Amino acid sequence: xxxxxxxxxxxxxxxxxxxxxxxxxxxxxxxxxxxxxxxxxxxxxxxxxxxxxxxxxxxxxxxxxxxxxxxxxxxxxxxxxxxxxxxxxxxxxxxxxxxxxxxxxxxxxxxxxxxxxxxxxxxxxxxxxxxxxxxxxxxxxxxxxxxxxxxxxxxxxxxxxxxxxxxxxxxxxxxxxxxxxxxxxxxxxxxxxxxxxxxxxxxxxxxxxxxxxxxxxxxxxxxx
Length: 224
Description:
Mean pLDDT: 94
Distance between the termini: 38 Å
Strand order of the largest sheet: 2-1-3-4-5-6
Strand content: 15-25%
Structural class: alpha/beta
Number of strands: 6
């Protein structure tokens, strides 16, 4: 009797980064037996709206990620803006019947107060491209236009509270990772939320974080 196909896990990186930023997570999940697809995209030039409604569904099809009630379970792991892309995709396409669990690292689910503070600066625009200003906390920002998490798939969110840049931490205000406040990572409908002592930029590289990702994908809860 043949064994069932492995669970599919799709990785989506954050703003200004690439597939390389999630390779440590990718390698660890492969060792755990998952079928991992690590996606890359041009986060500075392709609008969030297009990434969510056009790019992501096209990538899932191109990489043979199967959707549907009879397909293997589907999980996502995202970092920062990657979580917002996923939420936009789910709003546009609906929730795949086989979507089981999602882990978001440092997602600006309520936008970022840092964008409110420095979003109009020329240096910020150069560093974050076409999408940086769309991640503010204003009611008309992209993340604030998205609905709460839908029932069915389990969502675990990991937030950081150890910024490495004191100036950015000051501008962000409140406990956070230097770019997103802990409170801004939360989302109505989430299953679990855990704060860890890491910064926004480096959270995805840390072994304790990867252990928590694997725990949630396995059990639907973070370890405490």
